[in-house]
Amino acid sequence: MRQKKTLVLAMFLIVSLMLAACTQSNNNTEASGSGEASGTSETVGSSSQPIDENVTWDSPNLSWKKDTTPTSMTAYMDYTWWPMDSWGNDEVSQEITKRTGMTLDITKASDENQLQVMIASNELPCLVYTANPAFEKYFEDPKVSFAYDELIEKYAPEFMQLLDPEQVFLNTSEDGHFYRIRSHYTSEAEFNDPKNVPGPGMATLHFRQDIYNELGNPPMKTLDDIINVFKMVKEKYPDMIPYLPNWIPFMEYMGFQSTPKSIGDKVTIGLAEPGAVAYYEYMNELYRNGLIPKEYMSYKYEQFLEVVRSGKVFAASYNASFSDEQNKFFDTNNIKGKWTPLNTPPTVNGEMKMKRIVPSGGWSNLYITKSCPDPARAIKYFEFLKSPEGDSLAQWGIEGVHYTLTEDGLLKRPESFQQKTIQQAGVGPNYGLWNFGASGYREGIVNASIANSDPKYATSVTFLKAMKPYISQDMFINFTNPKSGSDEGVIQTKINQIILRYEPKMITAKTKEQVDEVYNEMLEDMKKTGLPKLEEYMTAEYNKAKQKYSEFVQKTTNS
């Protein structure tokens, strides 16, 4: 524990030294929040007391614990799919208010452009929760958002000692400040914990176990096997769709991915990696054999789900929890059928190539905007959310009501929990609603615990445990995303548009040769648009981050 505190203090010193040399010092002064935006807590909790070097999350004098008087803030959830748009109607948000005094006035995104409209009209709420990288450059500006490190230094100094130094490193902006701490971060040690399983947000192939049994349980060990099974379905069940894609796992089965990945010290766009055309050739083979419907490419999730729940789909791909969700729906609505995920990745030409590289930096950002009249209280509220107490409450629920802990540190849900919706409890089987400060580790415990409480609907646990050996983390990929509006950012946007334009042509091509021809055209178009420049930028940023982290570790180790 003492070593971790030394690392954090050293990191704070490094950040301070960076600020001293920063050319944006005039703007950074504005971020301190003194004066007009400091609100009612300006003098409440402003720290002049020495920091206790032995402070822990259980210490009685944490800043968030010193002021739990009732207060309210506006908050925007930049997710159209978020299942809740109000505060205080579920048990967890009620408990958060009880412990912290905080109430949120929630606005949920009605469409993907709503936040951009709010920015253009200068009508931002106190808090903005978004994972869209296009907004990072805008919000990581002292004119727009409060810097966490400055708020922490002024109003919650012990908080810096309690933060993971790697998280501070990962979230520090170019100006030396950090304006957010991404949710769902998982350290390497936490990822490797045997109790922890990966998050469910990975593309997964699911299929109807009952129909598979009727087919005689044919092998599904290779990509060719899967095509053969789909053909058997088409022949025996002509009214069924053999495969309905949404999130498509075949690219990762082949060892490729659509997001940037590192190969040694070089970063490449996954679809431009040599051999990636094989993915499109495979999808085209599925299409030419009538195994996937052409219209799947235009389906929104609701349409995709409606077709699946008609009972006329053999296989579908979405996230890891998809089979459990459909099995519950089928059982509730007396629909015949049982779904299961494919737990072993298929081989390619006799070789296991499945590989998934994920950034370890986390998921979503909570920004405290300059619209917030009480940033002191906001940072204290975030301190609570980052604490084990707040993290457990937001992701697991209320202990004794929504769960008890087993001897092996997993969750046991009571029967009453299964009867509640996420809108009633504030937490569901896989995640919690108010996860602004959530850790990836506690999310992993949630997923690993499903079999304890609901074994009938726990196929995702088996699947995620089976997939863990094929997943690795790379925190430096977090630094490769170009800023919106930069030359590289514009190139990236154009390349994404190129991919969207060419993909349907490749998948629906009449021959394999035509797929290759269109793929080469796409690759050439990407190169003309600036792919080499983008990959050069990403590679430079990747290696720069590795060097900075190496220097950081060396300095903190020697301090």
* Physical arrangement of strands within the biggest beta sheet: 2-1-3-11
Secondary-structure class: alpha/beta
Task: Report the count of strand segments.
Answer: 14
Biggest beta sheet summary: 4 strands, mixed
The CATH architecture assignment of the largest domain turns out to be 3-Layer(aba) Sandwich
CATH topology of the largest domain: D-Maltodextrin-Binding Protein, domain 2
Helix percent reads 40-55%
- Summed over residues and divided by their number, the pLDDT gives a mean of 90
Low-confidence runs (pLDDT<50, min 5 residues)? 1-48
Annotated CATH homologous superfamily of the largest domain: Periplasmic binding protein-like II
Provide the gyration radius in Å.
25 Å
**What is the CA-CA span between the terminal residues?**
15 Å
The coarse silhouette is globular
CATH class of the largest domain: Alpha Beta
Biased composition (Low complexity): 29-48
InterPro entries: Bact_solute-bd_prot1
Protein name: ABC transporter substrate-binding protein
Keywords: Signal
Write a structural description:
This protein is α/β, with parallel strands linked by helices and 559 residues long. It has two domains: 2-186 and 364-425, D-Maltodextrin-Binding Protein, domain 2, CATH 3.40.190; 204-318 and 480-546, D-Maltodextrin-Binding Protein, domain 2, CATH 3.40.190.10. It has helices at residues 2-20, 25-30, 63-66, 91-100, 114-120, 136-139, 148-155, 157-162, 165-171, 188-192, 209-214, 223-236, 250-253, 277-288, 301-308, 322-332, 375-386, 388-396, 415-418, 422-425, 440-453, 459-467, 487-507, 512-529, 531-558, and strands spanning 71-77, 102-108, 127-130, 204-208, 241-244, 260-263, 266-269, 313-318, 339-341, 356-358, 365-368, 404-405, 411-412, 471-473. It is globular. The longest helix is centred in the C-terminal third of the chain and has 28 residues, at 531-558. The strands form five sheets. A four-stranded mixed sheet has the order 2-1-3-11. Helix 7 (148-155) crosses helix 17 (375-386), helix 17 packs across helix 18 and helix 23 runs antiparallel to helix 24 (512-529). Helix content is 45%, strand content 10%.
